[in-house]
Amino acid sequence: MELVYPPVIAFAKTMFRALDLRIEVDGAEHIPREGGAVLASNHVSYLDFIFCGLAAQPTKRLVRFMAKKQVFDHRVSGPLMRGMRHIPVDRDAGAASFRQATDALKGGEVVGVFPEATISESFTVKEMKSGAVRLARTAKVPLIPMVVWGPHRLWTKGHKKELTKRHVPVLIKVGEAIEMPKGTSPDALTALLRERLTGLLDAVQKAYPDKPAGPDDRWWLPAHLGGTAPLPEAAAV
Question: According to the model, what pLDDT value does residue 220 have?
Answer without folding.
Answer: 98
